[in-house]
Amino acid sequence: MPRFNPQFWEVLFAPDQLDRFSDENALWRETEEERELRYENEEKRSKIAPLIMEIVENDLTEMQRNCIKLHFLNQKTRAEVAYMLGISHRVVTQHIYGILRHGKRVGGGIKKIRKICKKRGIQINEKHP
Fold first, then answer.
1. Which of 73, 90, 116, 123 is the most buried (most CB within 10 A)?
2. By the 8 A CB rule, do 68 and 56 touch?
């Protein structure tokens, strides 16, 4: 019999024993409403992703495009992007998010993407800094 490891707090069950537990109160439980919302969001994302990628490819500067693609698509940290492109972390942030000048955000690929999306009638969620 395997030893109990308090770091993992594992309790061994046979699959047939687990089947007897209700899914109603499980952590992984997803209500029908939550599932529909998830499907809806996935559908929206799949429709606007190609449009946003077109904007990234055609309307951003080369450095904005590189920073955004490495950070968001390749999931690199801004520090990793800075190292890869040979620029500072601060400059990567400026290319992605812009800078504050006199209390107003200026430049940045994200701002440009938002502006072009608004102009083209593409609705996107704005859940980032």
1. 116
2. yes
